[in-house]
Translocator protein (Petrolisthes cinctipes), 255 residues
Amino acid sequence: MAEEYGYTCDMYFISGQELEAATARSAPTEKWSLEAFLELPERNIAMIETLDYKVYYPKASTYLLHYYPYLDLPKWLQRLIMALWHAVIAVLFPNIGGVIGAYVTRNSIPKWYNKQLRKPNWRPPNWTFGPVWTFLYCTMGYASYRVWTELGYPSVLGSPFHLPYPLNAFLLQLVMNWLWTPMFFGMKNISLALVEMVMLDAVVVLTMLRFFEVDSVAGLLFVPYVIWLSLATCLTISIWRANPKWRYGDPSKGH
């Protein structure tokens, strides 16, 4: 048994001669010619992968067959499982930056942000940022999933430059979003964080407009994100103005 692409699969090793013999006995119109050979008439063979183990194991087989039990399910249930699986990945993926950000800020918030920075009275309480960002990461992730499906499930493996423009814009804004926290709370460079946030605002609006062109619901899911970013930008500007000594990093380090 092995975990492959998130699904449990059985692995069957056969030799090249056995593969040729099984193929010769099977009708050429059959999609998977080795079902009869493996005596699995009610199962589906998902993939045939060529492997070369003979360098290390002279008697080992050179072909690996992947069998996924979920392929025995009705087609409609297979599609539902795959859709849910992809949607869950898309929703959770943006939260990676949120988890890393929480780790980065675990000391900076109580020791620096709370005690050393002057902040406007209208700022949201600290406890709101975690739930709000979790919600926004999930909604933007689901929006990207909707766009991905509308664009025909383009491959996300390999270079991101091969992705359609809306998804490239989404990945760019997501990386920029993740970078803001280390700039502000890690480097304590308010000026750099402010410039990056203004650029992020522009990329997020562009992404929202591109998403609207593909799927209106996906575009609408970005509206709360844009509103919250606008508030965060105003807060960063206020902090930048009220804390001149922290504009370019820790003043004790000669900035």
Q: What stands out?
A: Residues 1-16, 22-67 have pLDDT under 50 and may be disordered. The two ends are 57 Å apart (CA to CA).
